[in-house]
Design goal:
Elements: H1 2-8, H2 16-41, E1 54-58, E2 64-71, E3 77-81, E4 94-95, E5 98-99, E6 113-117, E7 125-134, E8 144-155
Antiparallel strand pairs: 1-2, 2-6, 3-7, 4-5, 7-8
Length: 157
């Protein structure tokens, strides 16, 4: 009888152990539910998101195209790039047989514009991608989180 009383305890001591056990079980359940909810709801997924931005284009498919930065959202800038090699379209470069006069690329503030003008006559069309990016510059080696947000066509007249 004395052994049973030592193992079980008297009436005042018996409630301590079950109360602590219940508190620990509730705490473990809450922590487990929080971890599962974080995975299911993907709460940590937005940390390395692609760059987002919006642009408006005027004249795509013609011999002069203007791209205007409407919103940079989480992007550091918007660049118009040559899809064949990812390089930024710059003044004086020639793409296909369309020589372009480019001003304002890349776009780093809302409201800025880049204008492309076809200077050769003919029937060629060249496509460019408009890319939102994160990084210090629009150069391919410095861009990260790159996201194609639109494309434009420049057509010789």
């Amino acid at each position: 009888m004395k052994l049973v009383q030592k193992l079980v305890g008297d009436e005042d001591e018996r409630a301590v152990s079950p109360v602590i056990g219940v508190i620990l079980m509730v705490a473990i359940t809450v922590i487990l539910a929080a971890v599962i909810a974080a995975f299911v709801l993907d709460l940590g997924g937005g940390l390395s998101a692609e760059a987002q931005a919006s642009v408006s284009t005027d004249g795509s498919g013609t011999d002069e195209v203007t791209v205007t930065a409407e919103s940079l959202a989480n992007a550091d800038g918007i660049a118009i790039i040559d899809p064949s090699d990812g390089s930024v379209v710059a003044d004086g470069n020639s793409y296909g047989s369309v020589a372009t006069g480019v001003s304002g690329n890349p776009l780093t503030t809302v409201g800025t514009e880049a204008t492309f003008t076809a200077t050769d006559s003919g029937s060629d069309t060249v496509d460019f991608n408009i890319v939102a990016y994160n990084g210090n510059s629009a150069n391919p080696d410095d861009r990260s989180g790159e996201n194609i947000i639109d494309s434009i066509s420049l057509e010789e007249s």
